[in-house]
Structure formats: structure tokens, C-alpha cells
Amino acid sequence: MSSSGTTKTVRYDRGDAAWHLPQTGEPVELTGVVHYPADLGTGRHPLIVMMHGLHETCADRKADAARTAAEHNGDDAAYEAATAKLFAWPCAPGTPALPSELGYDYLARTLAGQGFVVVSVGANGINASSLSGDDNAAARADLINRHLRMWQELSSKDQGELAGKFTDPATGAARRVGFAHHVDMGNVGIMGHSRAGAGVTWQAADRHRGQWPKGVDVKAVAAVAPAYNVMTEDMSNYTITKTPFATFRGTCDGQVGGEALWFAADAANGNRSGFYRFAVHGANHNYFNTQWSPQSRQVAAADDARPVEGHPGQCTDREGAAPARQLTEPQQRHVAATYLGAFFRRHLLGDTGQDQVLTGARHPDAAITEVDVTTGAP
């Protein structure tokens, strides 16, 4: 399957308070943007579910400006008031939600062109909630399972909450898509960025496989710049030994430290299905999500890489990693699409031709960046 296949896009939105956190009762949306092959054919396509991490929930430009001013003036009360507006859920009337789930469209389109059905789900309600640490990771896992349950009902019976609920992302007009019997729920991949990286690790952990909806089998999990709770009291909540597992972190990540890689290695201890760690030189945290990146001009978008004094174009992280040439937004996303695509093609489509990429024997992006790969493949 080539990456140039024609794709289409729909979305679904069951409401800003369609689900409530089991731990606290706080409201969470059930929304997703779906990229899929334009011709679903006669067979079934693996499903990939993506989730964004912690970021502002409401695109409130006045609050964003007020927070910036408050920070400059050292006004803590004003800063907290503005932050509360930016992390509200649901957002105030007239204030649009910040659509972090759209930030992976570039990746979803690439994967859909390779034969996958890809859904990126919203998690603003979790970002606005009171949950932290392991509770936050568990909530994100619960939300992923909630979406998987809806997709299982749709795929197997053409019934449930998603039946007849897809719309055109641009116009909002109803769109009928024949996903029934064309989505392989026994061949699912999941990807989480930032806090959701911890969430997908929790969801795929050996201990939590019993919480997957009936008929669903997760065959590959990827954590991108995962923000783990390194103070967890029970590592078995993250331990993955039965599912192929990949983790990525940029050397210029200004938000997540090196624990993103070593915690994942601890979680993968004993994994014989395939474990991969990618250190992407010159990548930061936010560029993996277009909505969080400066070129989007979105509220709260920022370049989180740390500049290197006296060396324009060079960057490092908060831990003082060796300087690297900072990747541009398109370059970083190209690297992400290349390696995530290779990972999911290998473990959901059985494409062994991707092994050279995943083990570091061949770096298709060598002209862009050096990528250090540590493997624990069987």
C-alpha cells in the first residue's frame, strides 16, 4: 500500500459532555476526526486511534493576551484567572474549543493513504479536569476504550453511537460512510502524544488488557514525547510485554525530559513483541502537533525548544542535551510520519520491509536529522 492513496475525512461529535470521568464525574467530549482510504474496498482496514496530550482547551485570544500581560507584570491573580479561562470545559459561550485533535491531520492523512482508518480524538475535558499523575493516564485510557467500543459497534453491526453521525469537517453536512465490516477491530494501533503518551502506555499495559472492549485487540502502541508519572507507585500499570511498543522523544524537547525514553524502557522490560526507542535530534515537543506550533497562529502555540546562546539555529532541552540543528515544523512532522508509519505498517500490516527503518539499519530521513534507535525486537 503506497502513501499516495486517495483519502477522505469526516468527523463526529457526540457533545462536549457526552462522557463523564469515572473518577470525578467531570465532563469530557466524545469527538473525533477520521481520515480513511477513499475506496474502502471489500476488505477490512486496521484502525489507529490517536490522542493529544495536555494543552489549553479554549481558543480564547483575550484570555491568552491577558495571561501574557499578567506574566510580564508578575500579577499572579490575573495570571491564574486568565489560565482558568484557557483551561475551561466546556468553553464559555462564543469561545471556540481549541481543536488539538486536528494537530495530527498530517500524520493521519499519510497513514490513511497507506490503508489505515485513523481517528484522532479530543481530550479537552481531561485537560480541564482535576486529574493528575496515574489518574490522568487511567482516564485517557478509559476514553480511548470508550471510542474503541463505539467503533466496535459500528464495525460489527453498523449500529451504536456513531451510526449515521459522521459529518463533513468543512460544512457540517451529514456524510454517510460505509465503515461497517470494513474496520478490523482485531488489529488496532494507538498513538498518544505528551500526557496521552502515558495514557496509551497505560491502556496497552498487560494489566489493563481486560478493559479493552470485546472484539478489540491492540496490536501496536506508540508514545510520542510521553509525559510519564515517574513517581508512580505501581510500575505494572504501565508494563507492556505482549504488544509491540515504540516511544519517541526529541533532543530539543522543552517540556518532557529523558525519562520519556528510560521510563518506556522500564515499561517494556521483558517485551518480546518488539520495543523501539527513537531519539530524534533537533525535534521539540510541540511541533508534533500543528495546533500547538507557531505557524498555526493558534492560541497558546509556541516553540518549546531551548535555544543555544551564540549558536543560531541550534537547540537543546531543559536538561542541557548536546546541541542539535533544530528541525523546522515540516521536517519534524516528516520524521514523525516516516517512523510512525514504518512502525504501524510493520505491526498492523505485517510489512517486514520496514524492519530496516525500525532497527536503525536504514535512516530514510538522514538528510534531515540523525535518529538514534534502540531496539528490543524479538
Tally of extended strands?
14
- Uncertain residue ranges: none
Quote the average pLDDT.
96
Termini distance? 25 Å
Q: Which range does the strand content fall in?
A: 15-25%
Helix content: 25-40%
Strand order of the largest sheet: 1-4-6-5-7-8-9-10-14
N-to-C order of helices and strands: EEEEEHHHEHHEHEEHEEEEHHE
Which shape, going by the Cα principal axes? globular
What's the helix count? 9
Describe the protein's topology.
Layout: E1 7-13, E2 19-20, E3 27-28, E4 31-37, E5 45-51, H1 61-73, H2 76-86, H3 105-113, E6 117-121, H4 124-127, H5 133-157, E7 183-193, H6 195-204, E8 218-224, E9 245-250, H7 259-267, E10 275-280, E11 306-307, E12 314-316, E13 324-325, H8 329-348, H9 355-358, E14 371-375
Parallel strand pairs: 5-6, 5-7, 7-8, 8-9, 9-10
Antiparallel strand pairs: 1-4, 2-3, 4-6, 10-14, 11-12, 12-13
